[in-house]
């Protein structure tokens, strides 16, 4: 299974940084976190239109009064049933009531993960999990680790351990019209790749969670918290930019259930 997953994934999904103004990709859905890293510079390619949906679940993390776990469930398909276009950039958008406490958790850097896998990351640094369904039929576990970058930015590593794959995410404040609903975005880029964009791997479903607890010195901390009142509607989104140039923004609303 490990080699099969690598065949689908390794050439496609992680992080880069050269200049391409993502704001130009879609007047309807401009880039929500323009202060974050820029995607790889490459021309758009012909390909299918992705039909994406998003389902989000929020539940108490059981650690603190306001602590939450946030579960994103993205599905992607095409009208013809062919492989969806591969991603260029994702930005997970969190309701403006959500705040993160990464400084309370141990951090795992990319080099450590790539050298030794999940077991090499410090205890307590895992802050989420999930599953990636890769077209047409491969399935792989997802693990999320708190991280801190050399430039001081905080974020998470969304990883597929079976493939040794790391997706670097940075927490970035949203801008412009997005501030009406969101405060923070988790900005994720695709790695540079020698594989032609139209041939890169794509997911038909991607499930990932953000949330964990840790106890230190007798005090419990939550990785993610919500300041919303019970029953208030929370909004989440997933700004998605594909190698075809298509930009979509599926969203979901969920009431704080406690």
Q: Cα-atom Rg, whole angstroms?
A: 17 Å
Largest pleated sheet: 12 strands, antiparallel
Order of helices and strands: HEEEEHEEEEEEEEEEEE
Helix content: under 10%
Distance between the termini: 40 Å
Treating each run of at least 4 consecutive H or I residues as one helix, how many helices? 2
List low-confidence stretches: 1-8, 10-24
Strands, count: 16
* Class by SSE composition: mainly beta
Mean pLDDT: 91
Strand content range: 35-45%
Shape: globular
Question: Could you characterize what this model shows?
Answer:
The protein is mainly β and 258 residues long. It is 6% helix and 43% strand. It has two helices and 16 strands. Strands 1, 2, 3, 5, 6, 7, 8, 9, 10, 14, 15 and 16 form a twelve-stranded antiparallel beta sheet that branches. A hairpin with a 5-residue loop joins strand 6 and strand 7. Mean pLDDT is 91; it is low at 1-8 and 10-24.
Features:
mainly beta, single chain, disordered N terminus, 6% helix, two-stranded antiparallel ribbon, 258 residues
Topology:
Elements: H1 2-9, E1 51-60, E2 68-77, E3 87-95, E4 98-100, H2 110-116, E5 126-134, E6 138-148, E7 154-160, E8 165-173, E9 182-189, E10 203-210, E11 213-216, E12 219-222, E13 224-226, E14 233-242, E15 247-248, E16 251-255
Antiparallel strand pairs: 1-2, 2-10, 3-9, 3-14, 4-13, 5-6, 5-10, 6-7, 7-8, 8-9, 11-12, 14-15, 14-16
């Amino acid at each position: 299974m490990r080699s099969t997953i690598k065949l689908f994934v390794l050439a496609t999904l992680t992080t880069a940084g050269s200049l391409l103004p993502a704001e130009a990709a879609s007047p309807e859905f401009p880039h929500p976190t323009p202060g974050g890293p820029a995607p790889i510079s490459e021309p758009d390619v012909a390909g299918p239109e992705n039909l994406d949906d998003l389902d989000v679940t929020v539940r108490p993390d059981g650690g603190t009064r306001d602590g939450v776990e946030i579960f994103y469930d993205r599905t992607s398909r095409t009208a013809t049933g062919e492989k969806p276009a591969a991603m260029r950039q994702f930005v997970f958008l969190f309701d403006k009531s959500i705040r993160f406490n990464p400084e309370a958790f141990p951090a795992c850097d990319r080099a450590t993960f790539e050298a030794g896998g999940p077991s090499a990351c410090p205890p307590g640094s895992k802050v989420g999990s999930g599953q990636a369904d890769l077209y047409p039929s491969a399935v792989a576990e997802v693990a999320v680790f708190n991280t801190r970058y050399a430039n001081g930015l905080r974020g998470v590593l969304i990883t597929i351990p079976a493939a040794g794959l790391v997706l670097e995410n940075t927490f970035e404040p949203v801008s412009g019209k997005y501030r009406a609903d969101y405060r923070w975005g988790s900005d994720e880029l695709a790695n540079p790749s020698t594989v032609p964009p139209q041939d890169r791997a794509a997911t038909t479903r991607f499930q990932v969670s953000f949330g964990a607890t840790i106890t230190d010195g007798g005090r419990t901390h939550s990785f993610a918290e919500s300041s919303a009142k019970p029953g208030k509607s929370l909004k989440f989104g997933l700004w998605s930019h594909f190698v075809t140039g298509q930009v979509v923004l599926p969203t979901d609303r969920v009431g704080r259930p406690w």
